[in-house]
């Protein structure tokens, strides 16, 4: 892994739209938050663009992200919001300059497209709150993003879920939104999970969709050689008039039951108010015990 440099006061952070649209007015809470940390927000050309659901045309969103990937004075790129649209621009991007001088890409949900792609380039990124979610998040999530950006120690300890599979594991943390990971299977952006710890979360899905996606990950070898699994928010799940019969936790346990790796449920990350920052692509230690679960990150050294 080629680690991006951690931020310092005075650094510039770009805000861009790679998916859904976002207004300049809506950026204000995020701009103020960055300023409180001594950072300067630089609004991309897509902020304020309106192309139906999207923050500009595919060409406009690709050009905006490209300039921020290439600009040496931009030290992190904070994607304004998720939704859908990042995959539409991925193949229009040139990561040559980014590979030579990587910077933190920050976001979650649809931004899993970028997290997965830069992981294949051996560059870490940060799964965390976005400008869209700043007004409705809570302090612990906000503080965790600051720590992640500035290179402070990230270490989380939470009460264990009754369904957890206990054990200890270490490895590189990878993953993101389950639906996006599923959509990337078979492409060059699909993750290599062998020897790693997989993080997943999702929102607004039918339970049988969760089952189908998990089975497809299994059939694509995602669980072969996996060292551990961290399950974040499985938020606002739906069922049919005739019940599927399993909830999300039971689905994941059933599909992974033949594997020995530890599994942690209800980790505070994803489409939840307490969306703690995760430095994807960095080494972690996962300890799942009967009463407590901890996830501790290495500092990465950059």
From TrEMBL:
Q: Which CDD domains match?
A: Peptidase_S66 (cd07025)
Q: Where are the transmembrane segments?
A: none
Which SUPFAM superfamilies has this protein been placed in?
Answer: Class I glutamine amidotransferase-like, LD-carboxypeptidase A C-terminal domain-like
Report domain LD-carboxypeptidase N-terminal positions: 13-128
Q: Which residues form the LD-carboxypeptidase C-terminal domain?
A: 170-285
- Pfam families, sorted: Peptidase_S66 (PF02016), Peptidase_S66C (PF17676)
Q: Which keywords annotate this record?
A: Carboxypeptidase, Hydrolase, Protease, Serine protease
Q: Per its UniProt entry, which superkingdom is the organism in?
A: Bacteria
Query: Which InterPro entries does this entry report, sorted A to Z?
Result: Carboxypeptidase_A_C_sf, Class_I_gatase-like, LdcA_N, Peptidase_S66_N, Peptidase_S66C, S66_fam
Q: Which family does it belong to?
A: Belongs to the peptidase S66 family.
How is this protein named in the record? LD-carboxypeptidase
Annotated source species: Paenimyroides ceti
Give the source lineage, highest ranks first: Bacteria, Pseudomonadati, Bacteroidota, Flavobacteriia, Flavobacteriales
């Amino acid at each position: 892994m080629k680690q991006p440099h951690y931020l310092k006061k005075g650094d510039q952070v770009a805000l861009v739209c790679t998916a859904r649209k976002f207004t300049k007015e809506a950026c204000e809470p995020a701009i103020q938050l960055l300023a409180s940390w001594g950072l300067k927000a630089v609004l991309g050309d897509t902020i304020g663009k309106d192309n139906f659901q999207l923050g500009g045309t595919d060409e406009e969103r690709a050009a905006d992200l490209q300039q921020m990937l290439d600009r040496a004075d931009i030290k992190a790129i904070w994607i304004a919001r998720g939704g859908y649209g990042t995959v539409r621009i991925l193949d229009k991007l040139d990561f040559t300059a980014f590979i030579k001088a990587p910077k933190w890409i920050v976001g979650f949900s649809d931004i899993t497209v970028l997290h997965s792609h830069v992981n294949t380039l051996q560059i870490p990124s940060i799964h965390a709150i976005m400008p869209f979610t700043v007004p409705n998040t809570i302090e612990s999530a906000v503080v965790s993003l600051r720590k992640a950006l500035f290179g402070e120690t990230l270490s989380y300890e939470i009460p264990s879920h009754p369904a957890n599979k206990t054990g200890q594991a270490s490895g590189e943390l990878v993953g993101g939104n389950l639906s996006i990971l599923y959509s990337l299977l078979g492409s060059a952006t699909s993750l290599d999970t062998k020897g790693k710890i997989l993080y997943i979360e999702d929102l607004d899905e039918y339970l049988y969709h969760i089952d189908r996606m998990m089975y497809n990950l299994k059939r694509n070898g995602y669980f072969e050689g996996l060292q551990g699994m961290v399950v974040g928010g499985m938020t606002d799940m739906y069922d049919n008039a005739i019940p599927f019969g399993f909830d999300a936790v039971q689905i994941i346990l059933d599909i992974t039951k033949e594997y020995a790796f530890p599994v942690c449920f209800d980790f505070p990350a994803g489409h939840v108010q307490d969306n703690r920052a995760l430095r994807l692509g960095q080494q972690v230690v996962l300890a799942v015990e009967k009463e407590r679960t901890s996830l501790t990150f290495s500092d990465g050294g950059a």
